[in-house]
Design brief:
single chain; mainly alpha; 7 helices; 2 strands
Length: 206
Amino acid sequence: MVKRAAPIVLAVFLLTGCGAHSIQELKGGEALKSGGHAAHGPARASGGTAVPGRDYNPADVMFLQMLMAHNGQGVRLARLAPDRATREEVRTLAAAIATTQETEAASMSERLIGWRQPATARADEHAAHGGMPGVGEEEIAAVADAAPADFEKKFLNMMIAQQDDAIQLARMEVATGLNAEVKAMAERVDASRSAQIKQMLALLDQ
């Protein structure tokens, strides 16, 4: 089983707890057909204060920065499926994921530019919290190099964990962000990723 880097709480938050949960729990306690990847649950945190004269706070900025980077990883992972997946359902889902996350990234980039905020945080911004959430180069390579018979299971398990990380980021934004439009975006992320996870779990059962 490929190890995943532990997701982090937003750097502007005060971390008070982080409960891990697995894909087995996402399936309501059922055993996975293949090894899954642990994903962390939402941490309780307190959001940053509003930026003077603006309708956003540091939590909004960090959410956009982190989800943009996270989406980039997800798009790279999704783009492995068209040439490797054997089932049309998996290829179609992967294409939808890539399109959705590219569209989201463009919207988030535009908003950060409008706020005159950088697209990414400093390289060391998240070091104290364990690094950025999501998959790393080795994990993407492990899926890309999987044997044909194993590809779909590895891809789906990795993508489930990746999408769950996005859900946790979105729920932290809803709880601690200020900007109404960004919080609405986070709610859409939560809904879309949750639906995709449900679909991928069903594909694993087939």
